[in-house]
Amino acid sequence: MVADRGFQARLVNAPEDTLRGPLQLNVALLGFGLASSVESGENSGRQLRHDFVVLGHAQYQASDRRWASELPPVQRAGEAQRLAVVAWVSPIDLQQPLQAVGGWLRN
Predict the structure, then answer these.
(1) Which of 42, 51, 60, 66 is deepest in the core (most CB within 10 A)?
(2) Burial class of 84 by CB neighbour count within 10 A (0 to 12, 13 to 18, 19+)
């Protein structure tokens, strides 16, 4: 099960003068090839396909800029044709990523 897979992340080669204060690691699990049936409205009776759906998201803080944790809890992971994980580091008080990475997970 995806939620049981662990990961470790560490910020490396970051200029010290731009990294004052604590940082947070954001991790999101993405689902691809999901479908939803529309029951009303202009798309009534249609089945819509979805990619890049956030199935789970978690934030982790560490003053030493090292993180080790599990993937966030997920919903509908079994329905996805493919799964990916994305992670980005940012200052706690800002939304701008300082470093980001992503990749596919094996189903």
Answers:
(1) 60
(2) middle
